[in-house]
Amino acid sequence: MDQDQFIGAVAERCGMSAEQAGAVTQATLTTLAERIDGGEARDLADRLPEALRAYAFGPAEAAEPFGLEVFVQRVSGRADVDVDGARHGVTAVFDVLRDAVDPSAYAQAVAQLPAEYDEVADRTAEAPATPRRTGAG
């Protein structure tokens, strides 16, 4: 998935223009990078389309603890959309992120978020089990 496909999918899910969806995507990735550990942010960024990677790099190694309301307010301010639009956009970005990156990378990133984030981030997406090999193959 490239940047245009990612943003197009966000726009379709939340009913925004491509320009608004791009701003919400960038704001959500930036805010998520602030909220999770730096190593997880870099790991997630490595799996994103190249043009979106810079937004997902965290400014610090330690996660900044803040709740969902602060997350949505930051996205709202950064993307210049109202709070309701930001909340819908954040949910859409998490949904597209879940579908676009390796399931284990997504699961590890959202595992760092408190339970209140379940409103916007689907935690049911788990990494597929790795089949065990038996015998000398």
| CATH architecture classification name | Orthogonal Bundle
Residue-averaged pLDDT: 89
CATH fold category name: Globin-like
Order of helices and strands: HHHHHHH
- Proportion of residues in β-strands: under 5%
Helical fraction: 55-70%
Total domain count: 1
Rough shape? Answer: globular
Question: Briefly, what CATH class?
Answer: Mainly Alpha
Q: End-to-end distance, in Å?
A: 34 Å
Can you walk me through this structure?
The chain has seven helices and no strands. The model is unreliable at 127-137 (pLDDT under 50). The longest helix has 18 residues, at 18-35. The chain is globular. The chain has helices at 3-14, 18-35, 38-45, 50-53, 68-79, 83-100, 103-110. It has one domain: Globin-like. It starts with a helix and ends in a 27-residue tail after the last helix. It is an all-alpha fold and 137 residues long. Helix 1 (3-14) packs across helix 6, helix 2 (18-35) packs across helix 6 (83-100) and helix 3 (38-45) packs antiparallel against helix 7.
Write the layout of secondary structure elements.
Layout: H1 3-14, H2 18-35, H3 38-45, H4 50-53, H5 68-79, H6 83-100, H7 103-110
Helix pairs in contact: 1-2, 1-6, 2-5, 2-6, 3-7, 5-6
In short:
With 137 residues, the chain is an all-alpha fold. The protein has one domain: Uncharacterized conserved protein DUF2267 (Globin-like), CATH 1.10.490.110.
List keywords for this structure.
Globin-like, mainly alpha, globular, disordered C terminus, 137 residues
